[in-house]
Protein 1
Amino acid sequence: MMNEYVLVLVIGALSIQSLALIYVLIRMIGVTDRALARAQAPEAVGSTPPPPVSTPGKATVAPLKPSPAPVCTQPVEVVDKGLIAFIKKEEGFQPKAYWDYKQYSIGYGTKANSATEVITESEAEARLTVEVDKADTLVKNFATGLPKGIHQALIDLTYNAGPGWEHASLGAAVVSRAWDTVKADILQYNHAGGVVNAGLTARREAEVSWFDKPL
């Protein structure tokens, strides 16, 4: 009877040890499986940075973009008021855009921004002085040291008929200081739409008169 009792105790002890051993093995297998799962993942944990945390009450500020440079329409310093007065008289003030052979013009003969544009007289004068300044710069860059009257004539021609004369025979005559040829060439710029225009003829004659008597 005693031997049977001891045998039962031994078997019970072995069973407890076996269960403990089995439990340890199960835990080890679970840890190994989790390790293998992490190793086989596309990216290791922590390799992808977390999304930025937004601060409550603060909006995300987009990068600033540079603003386009404004178009200058402010009047520049007028160095030749006599020429400005002549152009204003010749062109006359037109507050509404009108068709002018090659373009829509407005104000004192400057190019309009659209066919329906309307401007004030002060804006027209501002645009006038800007364009005269551009013409003055063109003439100065093309030929320096010109007599005042010739310089004025070329500015008005540029303002009225546009650039391009500097690449024609007129430009060559200006460079060579052949003033009689310059006069004759200026008088040729009296056509509008391919037809001789009386108003342009009178304006060209006025310009060549400045050679001897500047404004």
Note: The two ends are 147 Å apart (CA to CA).
Protein 2
Amino acid sequence: MSEDRIVNIVRLGETDYSEAIERMNLLQKQRINDEIEDTLLILSHPEVVTIGPRARNDGVKPPLSYDSVSVDRGGGLTWHGPGQVVFYPIFKWDLSGEDSVAKIISLIESWVINSLDILGIKAHRDDRMQGVWVENKKICSIGLSFLRWTSKHGFTINFDTPSGRVEGLQGCGLGENITTSLSTLGYHFSHMEIVDSVIKSMAESVSRKHSESSKE
């Protein structure tokens, strides 16, 4: 591949989902017009379940005890909340090997698998659903939408979610108790450790390296 592309990393902390959507929409337009470089938003959300087109088409709804919002990324139901890191890559996917959505999803899966390997966690893909799995449990969801091959939305890593919350949801077409968090599986890492491993593995995984991170 060509020389690694520079990525601006923006750490937002806990951010309401509606605010994140507004920011993503703006950044996607700016990236399409080459007004900004590739940008990776790193944040978390107050608890909310996002409902993608697959869930809407299948008539799948979250339980009434969960706040929810419809979204335009691929997939079904995805839980967001405490104990989860959210990564939104506002990337222009035009490097070698990035010429299909399937290849881009595979690259992101490899990115997460490599990141967890840094922490000593053996992760894998599973034919049941895109994303990343540990011990046959799903701990990472991936859902993107594209405009002119520039992405918004992204991927999540569940590291220490509240007991039973993500497990009680039929996430992304899967039954209950399939999606979980690393802590439930006995792997205990902090938010910062997860973020650091994702940044460290970015160049190897998606041929992008970070510039100085900013915080807002």
Note: The chain is about 25% helix and 30% strand.
Protein 3
Amino acid sequence: MEEKKYIRFINSDYKTLFHLPDGGRIRITYPDGRQLDRVCRFNDSHHTVIGGDLYHICEFAERMERIGAKYEPLDYIKEPEFYPKCFIVTTEYTKGADYYLIDETETHAFAFAPKGVEKGKRYCVLEQHLTGDSFNGDPFKLRTPVQWGGSLREIRPQDWGFNMAKIKAVTQKPKKRTGPKR
């Protein structure tokens, strides 16, 4: 089986902004409001082909910053296993499940457990607290559950400032067509 490839998009300081699946699309918005959608292909961990042109990931970021353009993903990585695991403390009364951090804001995170979870606890909003230094010198984030839900409608991630398109891409299965094939 072929290994899945993901494209990393960064800013000029090498801070990761988002990842895109190979063949995914980005939308570039220019200062005049003009928008272009471009297909992106994985070349290697530091190079990608965007709309037919090969870029080093930092070269692309610098070029976009220089002209004042913004870029955002139109497609998202759908495999929950791509996202970092979030460990939520369990008790003798709760079952442990693998939660994945799908989206974050400065103060909160959204986690999703695709299987092995109690009823009503498939989705979780966590409050993030920066604590002491971790092994690599970056602040460690302690995350405390503040809301649980069994459905997106129940937990309302959009009210917390999360990216609903990304969350739906990861957590919702595509609807099956019921009509005739064309």
Note: Residues 80-171 form one domain.
Protein 4
Amino acid sequence: MTTTFEKKIKILQEKFFLSFSQTDVNNIVNSFIFLTVSFDLRISEDEVRQTIKRIKADKASNISDILNKALQTSLAKLISILISLFNACVIHRYHSKQFKKAQTIVLCKSKKSDYTDLKTYQLIALLDIMSKALKSIMTKRLSNIAETHHMLSDAQMKARRK
């Protein structure tokens, strides 16, 4: 069992900060299909309202210290500000530095006999609530576009509707 602080740090570094070699992509055939898809860039009030309501109210606080429940409770007063903020991000293709920040914590899984085994640790990333909301809206939109225009292989099953 690892007892020193330095040994524990080394184990965690090896587990969570792996080094990756460059992938060779020279053997990929140039077989791209270009499809022009038109859609409205503006994010609607409905999209924002549904997304904020879907967020779990009792989840851990994020790095901006905006509680999910507080955002949901004050949504009626904040909706126009959120719509403006999200639309500005999409139209200007800008993702705020604040949205990119995450606080990652490492949890030890309980009742494990050997904490030198890297599988006994779990990473939890706390992201900004605004980033989560915008990402959720954009993910739903991209998913709808991909499904509507049959852009995914029939073999692609994970995370697809139906």
Note: Residues 44-144 form one domain.
